[in-house]
Amino acid sequence: MRSNVRGVRVSFSGVHRLSVAVAATAIAFIALAPVGNDVHATTTTPNRTISLNLLIPSMTAASTNATSQVGQALNVMVSRNPLTLTAAIQALVDASGASVGVSLIELGGAAPLVWSFHGSAVFTAASTYKLVALMMEAQNIASGKKNPNGYVCYEDADYEDGWYDDYETGACFTRNELARRAGLMSDNTAGRMLVRDVGGADAVNAWAASLGAKESVFFTDNTTSSDDLAVIWAAEARGSLGGSAAQAWLYPLLTGTKTEAGIPAGVASRSTVVHKTGTLDQVDNDAALVVKGP
Fold it and tell me: For the stretch 153-178, what's the b/e string if a residue is b when 16 or more beta carbons lie within 10 angstroms of its beta carbon?
């Protein structure tokens, strides 16, 4: 098996900012696209700051097409030559008019490739903060610190518009159920409850920083880079975050999700993509692990 971490930041028609990160047969993608589903994020432009609360997870046709195009370019790997790979991505960017950040880390093979294209560029993280919370929860479950069937009870401060309407005072949900909602459906309230369960925003950001994330401020400012998403996925894929026990719990929550039109559509059909998307305004994110890479 070859493991790859890739990150790309690109601008396409209908997409203003795009970031892709691939780690250890994993891909993380973040893109700025038309309004989507993610909450708890702020987008700042030279003229204004926009804070949006959105209801339903979605990825626009333009943004998913852009993600797929980048995935296809990375999938081919342009003979695994960093210079020609950069040229191929640059051509896509120039033709699109979008802003793009891409990071690639191969975790297998005789000469693993580490490559990026504006990988340190900062984007709105959107729902990729849920990926970090899910990885932390998986690590806690693998270590025995948390019980996957243990309950987390809803608090009013947890609420964000999303897929489900059964959150009310006194309602409690197993970690398995919250993780299913946050992973497969990208439900916002479930994501917030998981962040609280793993210790809150400070704990999430300290954990990410300990893995090498340098630009990210998840959940509060809710920003990240393709480099950071790639390095986090690389640590997970290498087994550093709970090993096979954590992966056995985590990966089914991030496979066959509600949003499969991005990275999964752009890689070889023989590949299995474990990923978490995020969409807010004109930002689209997709952080993924590609198993059985090209």
Answer: ebeeebebebbeeebeeeeebebbbb
Query: Which residues does residue 223 pair with via DSSP β-bridges, in sequence order?
Result: 124, 217
Tokens 């793993």 correspond to 198
Greatest CA separation found in the chain?
57
Walk along the chain (294 residues) and give the pLDDT tens digit of each residue.
344 433 333 334 455 566 665 544 445 555 453 233 322 222 233 332 222 222 222 334 455 565 666 666 665 554 567 888 888 888 887 887 778 888 888 887 777 888 888 899 999 999 999 999 999 999 999 999 999 999 999 999 999 999 999 999 999 999 999 999 999 999 999 999 999 999 999 999 999 999 999 999 999 999 999 999 999 999 999 999 999 999 999 999 999 999 887 788 877 677 888 999 888 888 888 888 888 655
What is the model's pTM?
0.80
The whole-angstrom separation of Cα 178 and Cα 182 is 6
* CA-to-CA dists, residue 23 to 4, 15, 28, 101, 160, angstroms: 5, 23, 7, 14, 30
- The amino acid occupying position 13 is S
